[in-house]
Amino acid sequence: MSSLSISQTNFTCPNLGQNTVILTVTDDAGNTNTCEATVTIEDNIDPILDCPAPVTLSADADCEAQIPDFAGALSTNNCNNATITQVPAAGTTITVGTTTVTVTATDNSGNSASCTTTVTVEDAIPPTLTCPADLTADCLADEHPVYTTWDAFITDGGAGSDNCSLNTASIILESESNNGTICSRIVTRTYRIADAFGNTATCSHTLTIDDDSAPTWTTNNLPQDVTVQCGEEVNPTPTLTATDNCLDNVLIEFNETLLPGAGPNDSATLTRIWTAYDICGNSIRHTQVVTILDTEDPELHNLPDITVEVECADDVPTMPDPPVYATDNCEGTVDFDFTEILVPGDCPNRFMIIRTWTATDFAGNSTVFSQKITVTDTEAPELAVRPLRRHYDCREAVEDAPYQFATDNCGVAFVDFYETENPGNCPNNVIIVRRWVAYDLCGNTSEWEQEIHVLDTIAPVLRSTPVDRIYACAEDIPVAPSVQAEDNCDIVFVDFAETTEPGSCPNQYTITRRWYAYDLCGNTDEHWQTITVKDSIAPTWTSALPDDVTVQCGEDANPAAVMTASDNCATPVDIELSEAFLPGAGPNDGATLTRTWTATDVCGNAIVHTQVVTILDTQAPALQNLPQANVGVVCSKMYRRLLP
User: Fold this and answer.
1) What is the Cα–Cα distance from 340 to 158, expressed in whole angstroms?
2) DSSP result, 519-537
3) Contact (CB, 8 A) for 613 and 593
4) Which DSSP state fits 154?
5) I need a labelling partner for 271 at 20 to 30 A (CA). Which of 73, 82, 244, 616 fits?
6) What angle is formed at CA 207 by the lines to CA 204 and CA 210, rounded to 5 degrees?
7) What H or E segment, with its residue span, contains residue 639?
8) Planar angle of CA 63, 64, 68, nearest 5 degrees
């Protein structure tokens, strides 16, 4: 071998992986031969990291920040093909505090290196604070207390917020200032609050105190304006009390003035004024005016009833006893006057009297009282007798009109009498009207009317009423009786009628008898009798009845009997005979002869008798020329011949 050569002996990062190498051998004669080999290049060197330094960020309005990108953390790598990753990833939102970030460098051969750093988020935004609305008060005593809790602060309208977390327990009064007097001053309070990271905010709350309210009366029922009459006592001046909204030291002043009127009883006035002041000069006033007048009329005493109504002139009352007199509430004389007027009416007991009493005092106030006495005879006379309505059956029973007179409340009365008759349709059917009219001197009337009704509605009564009858034969019917009637008004008539309705035979028909009673007013009574003739009885046999018989063939049957019969009515009886022969099954085996007798009266009532003659052959034939019953013989050949 002369020489040995290799196609590649140095390998770098671009040769990572499998590489083909050619080996060439040359001998001295210049002859060569080659072969191939595979060389695999591997990278097993980790990257070298330059770890990022810790980072501090400020939180935004939402109390958040984003993790930065640490892609430049790689320092060196043998093949310069490493990739940087981080957890959490770049751009991840985090809140206030410190977050650890892991950074990793990985090359294409899977070699890697890691390190950690921190990201801190800090809150630098202060909170916001808004105080409740400013307040006003009348007095120092009404001054609003300091807010010591967050609930009290927001209940009155305060508000606060923070981008991260508001520390509501940190609310405090930072400062307070005030100026002015006891009646008017301004108080300014400054409140401070912090968030969870020590950032703070403040607000100011102003209270204005100004006492401009007047005192108020505490006396119930303040005295009102009044009017009193002369001579009356004026109520004494009351003591009023008042209170103030701020301090209790209220000063009350009182003033009273009297203004006389134009005369002794015509409106003097007493004016009372109460004024209440507080320490700040606010005041309230109450005024009462007492007016003294004489407006009261004199008073009349012992007055009679204002209206009196009487029936008669004799009933008019006399003048009052004790007499009417007048008094007045004020001093001075009272004039007194009396008048009486008669107003006539239309009769002696119908008129009116007007009595008037008048009292007038010094101030011209007057009282007038009028009594009206009315005499009005409105009461009618009263009749002494008031006969009641009557009902009679007969005219002759009506009684004569009774004696009548009247009495009247005023003494005099008269009576007129009238009687009329309204006839009806018969002598005992009439209406009698009796009318009495009483009247007095003033034309008052009363009347009474009696009606007497005469109406005969009672029917006559038949004295006897024959009952219905049934007879078998015409000759049994009796003669119709004579029936009488009686009536409540005495006069009565009776009619009789009889009709016959024929039947189908002489002893079968109907007789109807009617008795009809009536009086003068047409009241009636009637009676009907029905007589029925009905022969339903059959005749009866008067002869012996032949019985059924049995005969032997060849014998003679007895001839048919002659029958007789009678009837309940006096009419003839018709008797008929019929015969029927029925042959038997053979010449001598029970033929029958039936005889029927029928007796019938004139109305078809019938009676029947039947005889049956039976012909039989019950007799045996008679043998003739019979041999000797018993014969004795000796056995012989002859006998044997007789044997079978």
Assistant:
1) 92
2) ETT--EEEEEEEEEEE--P
3) yes
4) H
5) 244
6) 155
7) helix 637-642
8) 150
DSSP run (H or E) holding 637: helix 637-642
Q: Is 158 helix (H, G, I), strand (E, B) or coil?
A: coil
Tally the C-alpha atoms within 13 A of residue 179's C-alpha that lie toward its C-beta: 0
In b/e form, how buried is each residue of 125-154, taking b as 16+ CB within 10 angstroms?
Answer: bbbebbbbeeeebbbeeeeeeebeebeebb
| Token pair 């330094």 in the structure block, residue | 53
Task: Determine if the pTM surpasses 0.70.
Answer: no
Give the Cα separation of 201 and 163 in Å (integer): 13
Please give the torsion angle defined by the CA atoms of residues 512, 517, 518 and 523, in that order, rounded to the nearest 10 degrees. Answer: -90
Mean pLDDT confidence for 249-255: 90
Which residue matches tokens 């109504």? 309
Dihedral pair phi/psi, residue 422, rounded to 5°: -115, 100
The pLDDT of residue 351 is 94
Three-state DSSP at 624 gives coil
Cα separations in angstroms, 213 against 179, 180, 241, 478, 534: 21, 18, 17, 137, 135
Tens of pLDDT, residue by residue over 171-221, are 999 998 888 777 888 889 999 999 988 899 999 999 988 888 889 999 888
Nearest to 123 by CA among 200, 34, 202, 18: 200
